[in-house]
Amino acid sequence: MRINLKINGENYELEVEPRTLLVYAIRELAGLTGTHVGCDTSSCGACTVLIDGKAIKSCTLFAVQAQGSDITTVEGLAKDGELHPIQRSFKEKHGLQCGFCTPGMIMLACDILENETDLKEDNLRRLLKGNLCRCTGYQNIVDAISDASMVK
Amino acid sequence: MTAVIGKPIKRFEDDKLIRGLGQYVEDLKLPKMVYAVFVRSQVAHAEIKVNADQARAEEGVVAVITGEDIEGKVGKNFTAWIVPNSNQVGAEISSRPLLACRKVKYVGEPIAMVIAESKERAFDVAELVEVEYKELPAVASIENAIREDAPLVHEQMQSNIALKWQIKNGDVDRIFSESDRVIRQKIYINRAAPVPIEPRACIADYNFSNGKLTLWVTSQNPHIHRFYIANVLGIPEQKVRVIAPDVGGGFGAKIDIYNEELLACYASMILKRPVKWVETRSEHFVASLHGRDFLVDVEFAVMSDGKVRAIRGNSYANMGAYLGTVSPGVASVLHGLILPGPYAIEAFDYTTHAVFTNTMILDADRGAGRPEAIFVLERMMDLIADELGIDPLELRKRNYLPSGENIQTVTGLSYDSLDFSKVLSKFGEVSDYEILREKQKKARQEGRFLGIGVVSSIDICGFAPSPVVGAVGLQAGQWESAAVRFHPTGKITVLTGTHSHGQGGDTTYAQIVSEILGVPLDSIEVLHGDTDMIPMGWGTYGSRGTSTGGSAVYRAAEKVREKGRIIAAHVLNSKPEEIEFENGEYFLKSDPQKKITIQEVALHANVGWNLPEGVEPGLEAQSFFDPPNFTYPFGIHLCVVEVKPDTGEVEIQKYVAVDDAGKIINPMLAEAQIHGGVVHGIGHAMFENIAYTDDGQILTGSFNEYALPKAHFIPRIESYFTETPSPANPIGAKGIGEEGAIAAQIAVANAIIDALKPFGVKHLDGPYTPARIWKAIRGNLAKV
Ligand code: FES
Ligand code: FES
Predict the structure, then answer these.
(1) Lesser CB count within 10 Å: N end or C end of chain B?
(2) CB A149 within 8 A of CB A119
(3) What is the Cα–Cα distance from A40 to A26, expressed in whole angstroms?
(4) Counting Cβ atoms within 10 Å, is residue A131 exposed (0-12), middle (13-18) or buried (19+)?
């Protein structure tokens, strides 16, 4: 079936199966491979994108369900090549090592910075619980998000 | 010199990764590419009959390959470690058949490869491959596998023991009879897995016109992949190109050469089309290597003042059904040699065993053999401290080896450099150890159960020199290569035989080159991970990147600087002995105003118009660095926990790590290695467990059952360093990747057991989940 997806402000007309997950539509059909797949049980968060401003694991939706929504992936954050503040903070605070969980973490961080008020470390850590990272031990990810919240 | 080494330089790797522009294997697509999915064994041990007729007839199917189809046409996947004097089982038994043929030996073993025009199609059709199982008795645990009447994993063998390797030194029996106490404990370190967040993946592309095979693969060591492909598939090595692009973490999981990767190559050769395979996470838990799973029974001979004089015992490592790429070494050499740790022990008699079971293959998981050794050692130290009523930290102080260089150990190692006094004094400054003990006492009076674990650890890194590596059975060298190449414009490309998959090697190596050549960091590009471009090298694992790979870069840069000196002398009408080099400039000792930059020299060298006689054009050098010794980072870690007796829950309240990894190139990256390593160790101690039923069914097949640590489970890690340079390499670096994981698993375990002391618990095996802790408390409640 044919669907229309709006990703990073652009319209994509895609041919999908009813069972195609949103994450595959984004990666394989729209060709935006910054969104990653780290599991098949919706546990890792590597596939996190923003849907209408909210961080959602894109492996939990079928592509058809995302029609009419505004999707932002990590590729859509930088404006005119300039890094988004949260991207800059990840670099400044060394919030990534292998980078595989990073796009998901960054998209989740966007939601946190936009919608959460309690950004104390304990709460920040709780807010990250849907996203897994094996490299960093999370500490620098937490620091990157706090750092970006100061900039904001 | 401009001091670039030692600075927390921000990583060059980051920009593309934070923009989502990294290129991991799964991101790549080739024209006419087809997709593979594997049919895997559902049972642990069985005779099988495979019927793929219906699957083959399906639309969109390109091929279905079974074990019988390839039998005799391809080699087997063999182990690269043959431990001498160990009666290690031969390759005909220990090697993995690429696809099971007539028999399966563990759940998840690949039985058939389904290749289709799309991934979805391949998944659907895989369901149609019929496998008939005639089940055989299976064995999953070490204890069951070493029983006299155990079912045999390989019926050609007399037992399930794959190798037996003993280390013996000194008059152990005499010392045991002279000692005041003998303390003995059986310790089981449960199975876990490395679990990088990127699962494995590969694309094989065979070009039949020139016989060239290219494999993109999630590898920590692409040259070793090349070697295996050439051997198993019979392709000349120069016709194999292996590319490991951005790789999403390894932790040991991507050292091994796996059947799926070799099969993708084979399939591409017969189909003449690119073949892609991407592991699902559930598949990862049955198809990517597991770690730990050691059963150890040891006794320590101690004097009443706490001095440990001798150790003897046996270890058994669960190998799974076949031997992994390096697993024989993990079970023996990498484990037994380091077991006495940083302590002065007089005599040692320890026999390591590797045991076959009907489970997935075990191999290197962040630390590989050493975490298990240090776990046992430091568990025993706490038991001894408890038995003798000596403070655990004090007990360790009474047993440390002296500080200095080339310190001999009872197992015959020579520790490159050791200085626990420095680590202790830093630890004293930052840990509040005595205050914490007071707090613990007070908490107990209030009915709260705090526990403190304080452990010493030591790691074997930078596994070398190669002749020693060969002598202990690794069928490989462990030197490392680098090339430093000046371009005409004065910019530099560095090639390294190591592979960076999160460590930040590109930045670290650029810092080394910048330091030696006095060139700006942004004029340096570091390349790795393509065997057609990079000289032979051995990859990244065992915390060897900086100490061996970095040292090769260091040496190559030095060679470039020295060739530059000869050219500079010629251009400045002088002699090389008269030329000084500083901050990227060559100048006359006698007249510093007469100078030339290294970039100008590079241009001279590259155009070759005005070179001294006998000097070849170009400004580029290679180095193959084989260190004279291993390196041994060491440290003290502290963990404070509170256990809730009603629920068995554990809260980690504090974690302090003081590590000495020799010279640190980039403190920001080194600290981050400790963060990640410590959390890996915490995970293995408290949350992670690969569980099998007795008959070999796996119970932990996804992230729903296998719990990786999450951000809110853990406190901030306080990481500090002391620097005792290693004499084993020009940088003085030791390695830092595994230290955290080694120390943390036992620091957490000891803290939890310490908290359980009021309940009469002296020892408890992991994983330290609430359920197990709750049971331990209840089991012993009568004693309170
Ligand atoms: S891929 Fe979506 S949560 Fe893991
Ligand atoms: S940076 Fe590697 S998984 Fe998070």
Answers:
(1) C
(2) yes
(3) 16
(4) buried
Flag whether pLDDT at B561 surpasses 50: yes
CATH code of residue B716: 3.30.365.10
Say if CB B199 and CB B283 are below 8 A apart. Answer: yes
Alpha carbon separation from B523 to B65, B489, B515, B559, B586 (Å, rounded): 49, 10, 13, 18, 18
Q: pLDDT value at position B68? A: 96
What CATH fold (topology level) applies to the domain A85-151? DNA polymerase; domain 1 (1.10.150)
* Mean pLDDT of the B234-249 span: 97
Mutate to test the pocket of ligand 1, among A27, A28, A59, A131 (most ligand atoms within 8 A of CB): A59
pTM of the model: 0.96
Measuring CA to CA, which residue among B451, B65, B91 is closest to residue B262?
Answer: B65
User: B73 with B100, same domain?
Assistant: yes
Asked if the A2-74 domain carries CATH number 3.10.20.30, the reply is yes
Q: Are B611 and B503 in contact (CB under 8 A)?
A: no
- For residues B638 and B740, membership in a common domain is answered with yes
- In angstroms, rounded to a whole number, what is the distance separating the alpha carbons of residues A43 and B449? 32
Q: Which amino acid is at B668?
A: M
A124 interaction partners in chain B (CB closer than 8 Å): 711
Number of domains in chain B: 3
Query: What ipTM, to 2 d.p.?
Result: 0.97
Residue A124's nearest CA partner among A110, A145, A151 is A145
Treating both helix axes as pointing N-terminal to C-terminal, what angle do B667-686 and A139-151 enclose, rounded to 10 degrees? 120
**Single-letter amino acid, residue B679:** V
Closest-CA distance of chain A to residue B778, Å: 31
Q: B297 burial class (0-12, 13-18, 19+ CB within 10 angstroms)?
A: middle
Other CB atoms within a 10 A radius of the CB of residue B216 amount to 28
B443 sits in which H/E element:
helix B433-445
Distance, CA B395 to ligand 1 centroid (Å)? Answer: 47
DSSP of B710-729? -GGGS--EEEEEE----TTS
On whether any CB of chain B is under 8 Å from the CB of A96, the answer is: yes
Which of B13, B19, B365, B745 is the best mutation test for A, with the most CBs of A within 10 A? B19
Residue of B297, B292, B306 lying closest to B382 (CA atoms): B306
pLDDT-derived band of residue B542, with 50, 70 and 90 as boundaries?
confident
Same structural domain, B506 and B586:
yes
pLDDT per residue as tens digits for the range B442-486: 999 999 999 999 999 999 998 889 999 999 999 999 999 999 999
pLDDT at B462: 87
Nearest ligand 2 atom, CA A99:
1
* Amino acid, res. B29: K
d(CA B342, CA A65): 59
* Interval B675-684: pLDDT, tens: 999 999 999 9
Say whether both B613 and B716 belong to one domain.
Answer: no
Q: Are residues B212 and B116 in the same domain?
A: yes
Work out the percent of chain B whose per-residue pLDDT is above 70. Answer: 99
Residue A105's nearest CA partner among A136, A66, A62 is A136
